[in-house]
Structure formats: C-alpha cells, structure tokens
Design brief:
The complex is a heterodimer of chains A (about 625) and B (about 450).
Chain A (H helix, E strand, L loop, with lengths): L3 H4 L2 E9 L19 E5 L13 H8 L3 E6 L19 H13 L3 E2 L2 E2 L1 E5 L9 E9 L1 E5 L2 E12 L3 E6 L2 E5 L6 E7 L6 H17 L10 E8 L6 E6 L5 H24 L3 E2 L4 E2 L10 H8 L3 E8 L14 H10 L7 E2 L10 H10 L7 E7 L1 H18 L6 E5 L5 E6 L6 E3 L6 E2 L2 H5 L7 H12 L3 H9 L3 H9 L4 H17 L9 H12 L8 H9 L4 H7 L7 H14 L1 H7 L4 H12 L5 H16 L1
Parallel strand pairs in A: 3-11, 14-20
Antiparallel strand pairs in A: 1-12, 1-13, 2-3, 4-7, 5-23, 6-7, 6-22, 7-9, 8-9, 9-12, 10-11, 13-14, 15-17, 16-17, 17-19, 18-19, 20-21
Helix pairs in contact in A: 4-5, 7-9, 11-12, 14-16, 16-17, 18-20, 18-21, 20-21
Chain B lengths: L4 E2 L1 H5 L2 E2 L9 E2 L8 E6 L2 E8 L9 E6 L4 E5 L5 E6 L20 E6 L6 E4 L4 E4 L3 H7 L3 H4 L1 E6 L10 H16 L4 E5 L5 H11 E2 L4 E5 L12 H13 L4 E7 L7 E5 L3 E3 L8 E3 L6 E4 L4 E4 L11 E2 L7 E5 L15 E6 L10 H9 L4 E5 L12 H9 L2 E2 L5 H11 L6 H5 L13
Parallel strand pairs in B: 9-12, 9-13, 13-15, 15-16, 23-24, 24-25, 25-26
Antiparallel strand pairs in B: 1-8, 2-3, 4-5, 4-8, 5-6, 6-7, 10-11, 14-22, 16-17, 17-20, 18-19, 20-21
Helix pairs in contact in B: 4-5, 5-9, 7-8
C-alpha cells in the first residue's frame, strides 16, 4: 500500500463539461453528427512573440510539419468554425450557466469577462487558438470534510474532433468545435487517488444539477495535474472515464517514483549524454531485421548515440518499462516510428553481432547504453537530438510535461507543459459586462447536500442510498421517476443494485435511455409485470429489443389472479401429504415452488398472500 | 505604504482616449501599463499586470492580466484599494536573427501600404502593428529571404478604407522607381477593402510595365496562426518573379491553404466580407493560379515580361461620384457638383425613368455619366428596354461589363487625359471590359 500522504501527493483536477446550448460564438447547434460536409486543407504557423520567443509547446507541434484537413458538416458548423468569419458574442445561455456554476462554488465573478486566445497549433482549432474567458476566481467546496479550492472558472470553446491522423495529415471534424465548455479547476488540494474520484463526482453532480449540460461519454473530460514531493507537475489530459481516475493517478505516481529512482542511480554512476551522433549504417549491412533491411533498401540509415551510465535504466527485468518509452516518446516528436536501445537488444532481428559492433564503434563501457534510430539522416538526427534532451532531463528527475490519457489507465507523452504566456486578447469579441444585479437574480439549483437530505426525507431512502444515487449520477433520473409515481424503493433498487449486476454480466446499463427505463418502471407500476422481472427485461432491451418485445420474450405477460389461484391449488393438491403433515409450516417450502412458476410475472407479496389463503382453505 | 497605495481616483484621472487604437484607452497615473499591481476588492485580492483598458470596457473598469495568463475586467471605484507591487519597465524586443539575404535571387520590391498583410503582432497585448521597416516584414515572413532578394519599403501605413485616390499616384510612381532600380517584380501589400480600386487605378496609370505588379492582402489577421497573410505573400512573390507583366491581384483561390488565384487588376472585386477567398474575377476567369509551396505559376493570355521603360500615363481626378440606383432614389443626388458620375444602375443598366431628365441635365452641362450594373455579372446594354434607350439618347456612356468600381477609377483617370472622355471610356485600355462572355 502506497502512503500517498508521505509521498506528498498533490492532485488538482480540471473539469471540462460540454453545455447543452448553442455553440459559444455562433448560432450553430452543439451537435455531433455523422455528416462529413465539405473538406478544407489548412496549415498553421507559429509566430514568434514580440520577445523573439516561441513557446516551446508551440514549437514542438510546429516541428512536426503537419497539415490539417477539416470536415465541415453543414448541420453543425458554419463560417465561424471554418475561421472564415469573425466570432459572434458569447451565447447568453452558456454565459448564464457558467455564472450559475461560479455562484454554486462560491466564487467571485469578475466585473467584465475578457475572452482570450489560447494558442493551440495541433490543428484542433481552425484559428490556431482556443477562445476562453475567465468568469470567476476563488471558489471553494467542502467535500468529504476537506476544503477544495475551485479557481478559476472559465467558459471556453471545445476543440474540433479528431477523426484521423495519417502521416503528416490530421483530420478534424468541426461539429465539436465551438461547443461551450465550462472549465472548473480545483486547487492542488486533493491528497489521494480515491479522493480525486469523489471530488470529480461531486462537481459532476453540481454541473448536472443545472440540467443544461450534455450527458454521455466525451461530454465531460478531466485533465489531472499530479505531483509528488520529489517529482514535478505532470498534466494528464482527456480522462473520460471517472472510475479510471484513481488508476491514472496511481500509475503516474509509480512513474514519477521510477523516474526519481533512475535519477539517483544515474547520478551515482555519473551518467553523461555525449553530443555525438554516430552513423552506423555500415554495421548493419548484414542485419537480418526486417525493419532495418527494408529501411536500408529505401536509402535510410542507422544512427546512434551513446548514453554513458544508462545501462539497465531503459528497460527493467521482465521487460518492465523504464526510461526507454520516455526516450522513444521524445524521438517520435521528430517523426520517427521509434527507437532501439541496448537494454532491449538483441531482439527484433537485430543480433548480438550488430550490438557488439555498435558497442565497439561507440567505445562503450559496461554501464553505458546506446540508442539507435533507423530513418532518413535528418529525421534520425532530429530524433536523436530529442532522445538526448530527454536523457538529460532524466538525470534531473521528473520533467514537467503534458501526457495523454490512454483508455487502459496508462499515459503517453504529448509535449512539455505549456506556459501561461500563450494567451492573448481575443480582439474580435468585446468585453462582456456582468451586472451584479443580474447575478443576484440567478436561480441556483439545490446543492448536493440539500438534495441528499431531501431524498431521505421525501422518498424514505437511507443516507447511503441517496448519497449513491447522487454520486453515480442517477439523481435527476430518479427524481423524474418519482414525478411519474414510481415506487422509490423499486427505482433505487434498480439503479443501485440491478444496474451493477447487469454490468457484471457484461451489459452496459448506462446506455439505457432515460425514457426507456422510465417506461419499464411505469409498466411495473401499472401491474403489467412484477418488479422481479426488471433485470431480465432490461437485459433484453440492452440486447436490442423494444420494451414490448422484451416483456413478451421474458415470458412476463400478466397472469390473472384466477389462473394464479388455480396453479397454486394444483401445487397444493400435488403435495397434499406434505401440506397435511406440516400445515401452515408448508408455506415456506411451497413458496419456493410457486415463485419458480411465477417469478417476474406476479408480485411475490401477492403470491404469498394467495398461497397462504389456499393452504388455510385446504387445511380447514 | 505611502505613495504605493493609490486611490482609484488617481488611476482614472485623467483618462486618455485615443481614437486610433482599440487597445489604447489608458488609465493614466503613477501606475502605468505593464506594472504589477494588487487590487483589493470585496475582501478578495487580485494580483496581476495592468493592461491597456479595452476601448469597449465599461466605466472605471481596468484590465488586469492574472498570473495564469487570463485578462479580466475589474471595476475599481473609491472602495477598492490598489497597491503597486512592481514597476513593469519597458520590454525591449529581443534582436531576432533575421535570415541572411541572398542577392543572387531575383530582386523583388515589396511596397507596404498598410493592412494586415504588412503587419506584425505585439504578443504582449495581441495588438497588430503596421510593419514600419523591412525587418518587420522579414521578421514576420522569414521565408521571403529564401525565395527572392527582397527590398521592402513602407510607403505609408493605412487601413485601405483610408487610402485616397491621390495615393494611387504615389504608389504608381514608387512602382516605376522600383523597376528602374532593377526590380524584377513589385509586390504591393495592401488592405483588402479597397484593394480592387487600387489595382484598377494602377492598371490605368501604369504603362509599358516590364514585369508584374502584384497586389496582395490578407483576410485573416496575422495575429492568428491560421492567417492567410504568409501564403498570400509568398504566392505574390512567386507571381512577381514570373515571366509576365501587368497589374494583378493575388489572393486565396478557395478556403484551402494551398493555391492562390491570379486576377486581372481591372476585373477583380472583394465579394465577401470575411472569407479568405473573397476576391473573385467578375465577367472573366482568373488569368491563372499559383501554388506557393511548389512554386508553380500557371497563367494564360497575359503579356510577357519585356524590356520596356515603365511610365505613368495621366493622373487621378478624385472628383467623381458613384451613385447607387434604387427605387425611391433622390435624383438630386446626381447634382452634387462632381466632374463625373458613375451610375450603378439596375439590371442591364437602368435608372428610374423620372431620373433620366436629371441625367440629361448633367450631360448637357458637360459632366460625363457612365452607367454600370449592380448585377455585377453580365454587361450593360442600353438597347433592350426603353429606359435604357432613353439613357443612351441623352448621351450616357455604357460601362459594358466593367465593374462599377473599375468604371469609377477609370473615369477619375480619363478626366485627367487630353482625349475625349467618351472615347477613352469606350476603349479597352487595361482589359477592363471584354466583348465575349460565357
């Protein structure tokens, strides 16, 4: 068990939530579509600042020499998204929502919102910048008894949706570009991986309470800032699944610990990164590796550098990833496919003969390592320059960087962390004044604590149930069900117990539409089938059946009381000796037999009532 | 704390407002733009750099750049306390290594007149500044040095809506000078709003051009990475190096960043307020296209580069008015004392019948009246309908398929020549009209 307190873990979240309004700076609907629409080809150019400095993140993107293809679906993009028309003023509904959120986290709203341009030249914004405005600062929430600072609260536009990345061409669809996002950043006040999940759940609940945010996968995204005392701030971008949040944090802590440990051993060994790039193609003329062979045939070469003192730091026992993937990620920014390093060779068809030749050529000693790149000379040399940069950083510990979240809980290097200096005023949008009177007039939804208390009181749930409904994001659905007169315990039981069971069986119950689930429970309420049939019916719906089909396939058509009574009579008749012997004591065992017959078709209470009556009748 | 604590009063008094720049409504006091300050407001503290107040900001609002890079607007009244934390000092522009100039490459003159195309960005404020020097241009477009031996001159720095007809003469004469000094081609960097007027004017004023004169602008300002300025400028340079002569406009062909169209200077018009492919040839196809990345220039039916001595013919008489015809128009508008009038008529070149007597009055006084069409596409024809025939009878000069703006500029020019205005207007001087359309 890792003691996160002792490691000085600090976690901050940046939560981005899509709003269910029109787009932020035009009148397009905020809808994702399948339409491709017309396509545009564009380039983006980083511009050196007045100070002659180009942002290092911007530079790294530009070095990739990419061009961008934009799909412009007519239904949800217009000239504004194409960067062919100036933006319109911010959508008033989106602005109102952002202000409500600011009030809900007790933040101070600015007197005028000034939208800014945040330079982003990975192509995700046609303009080369994201428009973002700071709405409020200095908010705070108390979650599980801990104070969590919330600052700043921003309103910004979502980026284009990446469709494809092929060679030097990246394709984006503009349907997502411009969808309003509320960005809430917490302070570095979170101390454990689990707490991060709770905080995210809580804030997610606040956002949902406005009832004007988008739902579903991809509509809320989290960036996570993680550091430990001896490490550095690393930003993990694009966490979409809340339940994975602790995993990303745990993995990142492990990675930082690894980097710190390697830094120590590199220091002990007096590791050094030599400047020279060796041209080693001649040593690989006879190499049987397919990659090397075909590359050499295409006029590429093998280039390498020596990393003095790095032996064994690149890859651990049983292939454990150490510094190797870190160096490879930097190399890839120069456009190469990857690297070969001495900790993993011989392998991939590269034999020990070649390795020894490299060791000799590079004049290596026992603790030294080498890194090879097979590519065109310029690209290979650029890549090795990047490897050197990363290797030098490795001797200093954990570099600050931005990493992308991968679905399996791991992360990959994206770029060095970007500085705050990449923001300039958006001169096309005038300042947006916030009138204090307007703020006071805003109607705020109830807070989570109020809601949990109310659920207890109004619906007779216990604290745990109401808390879970909220945390799991079912509170709004639950309340809608209550309005339709559905039984609270049936509804909460379905959401809190049936759903997890369905998940275990491999279904995705969260894919069920709210309307469908409500329909199912209304049918139960109307007596069309018994609550015991709910799991089976939901399962069938998730397999693609309609509600009617599912009820019928589940064999749950209503059986009338008369028929039930007849079947029960027959059951008793068939076991008359047993009933004779036990009297009312036969009730329990017979109930099992009756349930087997009617489970899901007839309410259990009713069955036991009829059974009891019939046994009494029989005995008398 | 003493002097470092400032009353709100002093921050805002006196307020200096400059009309010329959106970003220059500056609160002026001991605190100056760029200083680090702290504002204490309603129990909270805001620390940041004082930025120029936005022109559209409300009363007593200051702009503060917070440490996270965001600007916010804060109202500072007598209630708030402002503390000066640190003087900002002047930020000096670092000397940037400009690419070295290769004098063996074709010599191309770049004349800057203003507009986005000839500007660079102040990344402290995001404001766009006009390029003042050759270095400013090359600083923003270092690729220039790989493609030509650039010689940059800033003639003036104006929004194109502020360029007046007499400045066309200055531009024309500067172009001649550049050719005389050995330029192989001249690029004129220009704001886009009136670039079509200037290109028409240069087409009439300049004669015997030995090489190309290329006007170029930009629709998306250079303060954004997606600006079209760089691609357009490089495209213009490629055309300026090519083996043609004459006056052209080079701008984005479509919404892709790959090709630019080459338009005849007299047939081109800005047809969209904002798109990067705003410029279109009207009543004529573009004369060619250029792929700046691949350095390909394709042209058809244009004069070749030659050894002629360039000269200017005539001058410009700005006293010509253009009148847009519409239902309910006041015919008195025609009697405004101009020395020439261009009517932008309806359909084939018509005016309300009731206006025709006023047109006759003008012509009888010796004021030439040219009629063009607000349809833009297609030619004027005064023979089809009676109102057209009546206009022809009173002596209106049909503008054929000339753009109204081109007709205006041509009339301004024709008025300064010795020949009869009517004859000049009906002669195709610089490809401004064509006999065939499809």
């Amino acid at each position: 068990m890792v003691d996160y307190q002792e490691l000085g873990l600090k976690v901050g979240l940046e939560i981005h939530q899509q709003l269910d309004t029109n787009k932020l700076f035009c009148s397009c609907p905020s809808e994702m579509v399948d339409e491709i629409g017309k396509e545009l080809v564009r380039f983006l150019r980083p511009t050196a600042s007045e100070l002659g400095e180009v942002d290092k993140a911007a530079l790294m993107e530009a070095r990739k020499g990419l061009h961008f293809k934009y799909q412009c679906p007519q239904k949800s993009s217009c000239l504004v998204e194409m960067d062919e028309e100036p933006p319109q003023g911010p959508d008033p509904n989106a602005m109102e929502l952002a202000l409500k959120m600011a009030m809900m986290v007790n933040a101070s709203v600015v007197d005028e919102v000034h939208f800014m341009r945040k330079i982003v030249i990975d192509g995700s914004n046609t303009s080369g910048f994201q428009r973002t405005g700071l709405i409020a600062t200095d908010g705070e929430l108390v979650i599980d008894g801990n104070r969590i600072g919330i600052s700043p609260i921003c309103l910004e536009e979502d980026a284009g949706r990446k469709v494809e990345s092929k060679g030097k061409e990246k394709t984006y669809r503009l349907d997502r570009l411009g969808i309003p996002l509320i960005e809430l950043a917490t302070g570095p006040d979170i101390k454990t991986p689990e707490e991060a999940k709770h905080v995210a759940q809580y804030i997610g609940g606040l956002l949902r309470a406005t009832r004007s945010v988008k739902r579903g996968i991809g509509t809320i995204r989290e960036d996570v800032n993680i550091s430990i005392a001896e490490g550095a701030r690393v930003e993990i971008k694009g966490v979409q699944e809340l339940k994975m949040l602790p995993t990303y944090i745990e993995n990142e802590v492990e990675r930082q610990l690894m980097l710190i440990e390697k830094m120590r051993s590199l220091k002990d060994r007096e590791a050094k990164v030599s400047g020279k790039v060796y041209h080693l193609t001649d040593l690989f003329k006879e190499c049987s590796s397919k990659i090397v062979k075909s590359s050499l045939k295409n006029g590429k070469g093998v280039y390498g550098i020596k990393l003095k003192g790095f032996n064994g730091t690149l890859r651990g026992e049983e292939g454990k990833a150490l510094l190797g993937p870190e160096l490879a990620a930097y190399a890839k920014t120069a456009g190469v496919g990857g690297i070969f390093h001495s900790d993993e060779l011989p392998a991939y068809g590269i034999e020990s003969v070649e390795c020894e030749a490299v060791v000799n050529e590079l004049d290596m000693e026992g603790e030294d390592a080498f890194v090879l790149v097979v590519d065109e000379e310029k690209r290979a040399k650029d890549a090795l320059e990047q490897v050197k940069i990363r290797a030098i950083l490795a001797m200093k510990g954990v570099p600050e960087e931005t990493r992308n979240a991968v679905e399996d809980g791991s992360t990959v290097f994206l770029r060095p962390i970007s500085g705050g200096a990449r923001m300039y005023p958006e001169t096309d949008i005038p300042p947006y004044p916030i009138n204090p009177g307007y703020l006071e007039g805003l109607e705020l939804p109830e807070t989570p604590d109020e809601k949990i208390k109310r659920f207890k009181k109004e619906y007779g749930l216990n604290k745990q149930q109401s808390g879970q409904l909220f945390r799991k994001g079912y509170d709004l659905l639950f309340e809608d069900m209550m309005k339709e007169g559905i039984d609270p315990s049936i509804a909460s039981n379905m959401l809190l117990h049936t759903y997890p069971e369905l998940s275990k069986e491999g279904y995705e119950p969260d894919d069920l539409l709210d309307e469908v689930v409500k329909e199912v429970l209304t049918r139960v309420k109307n007596g069309e089938f018994a609550k015991e049939g709910i799991p089976k019916v939901l399962g069938l719906i998730l397999e693609g059946n309609s509600v009617d089909e599912s009820i019928s396939k589940a064999g749950l058509e209503v059986v009338d009381d008369h028929e039930v009574r007849n079947v029960i009579k027959t059951i008793i008749e068939n076991r008359k000796d047993f009933v004779q012997e036990r009297g009312m004591g036969a009730m329990g065992p017979l109930m099992g037999v009756v349930m087997k017959e009617f489970r899901g078709k007839v309410d259990g209470k009713k069955l036991s009532g009829i059974l009891k009556e019939e046994i009494e009748k029989w005995c008398s | 704390m003493g002097k470092d604590v400032l009353e709100a009063q002093t921050i805002f008094k006196p307020l200096r407002v400059s009309q010329s720049d959106m970003m220059q409504k500056v609160p002026l006091t001991d605190v100056s733009i760029g200083d680090k300050i702290k504002v204490e407001k309603e129990g909270r503290e805001y620390t940041g750099i004082l930025m120029p107040t936005h022109r559209f900001s409300g009363d007593r609002i200051i702009t503060l750049k917070l440490d996270n890079g965001y600007n916010i607007g804060l109202k500072v009244t007598d209630e708030e306390r402002v503390v000066l934390l640190e003087k900002g000092g002047d930020i000096e522009r670092k000397s940037v290594d400009l690419p070295s100039i290769n004098e063996d490459l074709p010599k191309i003159s770049i004349l800057a007149t203003g507009g986005t195309i000839a500007s660079y960005v102040d990344y402290r404020t995001g404001a766009v500044h006009p390029a003042q020097t050759e270095d400013d241009m090359i600083y923003s477009n270092p690729e220039l040095a790989q493609r030509c031996f650039p010689s940059v001159e800033v003639l003036f720095s104006k929004l194109s809506e502020d360029i007046e007809p007499n400045e066309w003469i200055l531009i024309a004469d500067s172009i001649i000078k550049e050719f005389q000094a050995g330029a192989e081609g001249v690029v004129v960097a220009h704001g886009t709003d009136t670039m079509g007027y200037t290109s028409a004017a240069l087409s009439f004023l300049l004669d015997d051009l030995p090489g190309p004169v290329v006007l170029v602008g930009s629709q998306r300002s250079s303060d954004r990475p997606s600006s079209d300025a760089n691609l357009n400028l490089l495209a213009a340079v490629e055309v300026a190096k090519s083996d043609i002569s004459g006056v052209y406009v080079v701008m984005h062909e479509n919404l892709d960043d790959n090709r630019c169209s080459i338009h005849m200077g007299t047939k081109v018009r800005k047809m969209h307020t904002s798109r990067r492919d705003s410029f279109k040839s009207v009543n004529k196809e573009p004369v060619g296209w250029v792929d700046p990345e691949e350095r390909i220039v394709k042209v058809e039916g244009v004069p070749c580069r030659n050894k002629k001595e360039p000269k200017r013919i005539g001058c410009i008489n700005g006293d010509v008015s253009m009148i847009y015809v519409h239902p309910g128009m006041d015919e008195g508008l025609l009697l405004n004392g101009s020395e020439g009038v261009v009517l932008v008529g309806t359909g084939l070149g018509h005016v309300p019948t009731r206006v025709i007597s006023t047109v006759k009055e003008l012509i009888d006084e010796g004021v030439p009246v040219v009629v063009t069409s607000q349809c833009l596409h297609g030619t004027v024809n005064c023979n089809v309908y009676s109102s057209g025939r009546m206009l022809a009878e009173v002596g209106v000069i049909p503008g054929k398929d000339m753009l109204p703006e081109t007709a205006l500029v041509k009339l301004m020019w024709a008025l300064t020549l010795d020949d009869k205005v009517e004859d000049i207007m009906e002669t195709n001087v610089a490809g401004e009209f064509s006999e065939r359309r499809w």
